[in-house]
Design brief:
The chain has 199 residues and is mainly alpha-helical. It has two domains: 95 residues, no CATH class; 72 residues, no CATH class. Helices cover 37% and strands 9% of the residues. Helix 6 crosses helix 7.
């Protein structure tokens, strides 16, 4: 995971998503910060902006920091603050994180995950021999603990993810892909190559 910069909301977002959501919440008598029961299903007006979210963040998963094609069907809109806790935020662009389906499912409605937006640079580092990621040893104890929890919750250190990062690095070292290619398709690996001076 690397820092993500909030991108501007689409021109039609307010009309097609936010206002529709707020009108529905008001009609149902649901306050903006009510904790929803499991029986309440919010209308998914945010689906209108799914492709716009993918476009805005160049197809890069906020959690795995890898590019994925829209056509795979693997794209999902993660509500960083859970919809069930803050219904109004279900219709706020700033609460959306572009996510691969797996990472979104792992996060679910848990709140023990570091937010890619506002994440300090170099919070996570990669061991390229194995592809494993770790909290940066220079972090404060509090941030290091939060980084460990994030890795566990999102399964960022699964064998598949470790293998993927190691493979991306190997492809670069072997000359199969350029550093510029990695900046687009594997930006976490790209950032770590630069940080570790492996040019």
């Amino acid at each position: 995971m690397i820092p993500v910069t909030l991108q501007a909301e689409p021109a039609d977002f307010d009309i097609e998503v936010r206002q529709k959501g707020l009108v529905w919440l008001a009609a149902e008598g649901i306050s903006s910060h009510a904790v929803l029961s499991k029986s309440v299903k919010l209308p998914n007006y945010w689906s209108h902006s799914n492709k716009q979210l993918w476009d805005a963040y160049s197809g890069v998963c906020a959690y795995l920091a890898i590019f994925f094609e829209w056509g795979t069907g693997a794209s999902s809109t993660d509500h960083f603050v859970a919809k069930s806790r803050y219904p109004e935020d279900a219709y706020e662009w700033s609460n959306y994180r572009l996510s691969c389906l797996g990472a979104n499912r792992n996060k679910n409605k848990f709140d023990d995950v570091l937010d890619p937006m506002g994440l300090p640079p170099n919070t996570f580092v990669i061991n390229f021999a194995s592809g494993k990621i770790y909290p940066n040893p220079s972090l404060t104890a509090t941030l290091k603990s939060a980084a460990h929890k994030t890795i566990r919750r999102l399964k960022l250190d699964s064998p598949e993810n470790n293998s993927m990062r190691a493979r991306h690095f190997s492809d670069y070292i072997n000359g199969d892909v350029s550093l510029n290619h990695l900046s687009r398709y594997s930006p976490f690996v790209h950032a770590e190559i630069l940080r570790q001076g492996l040019l």
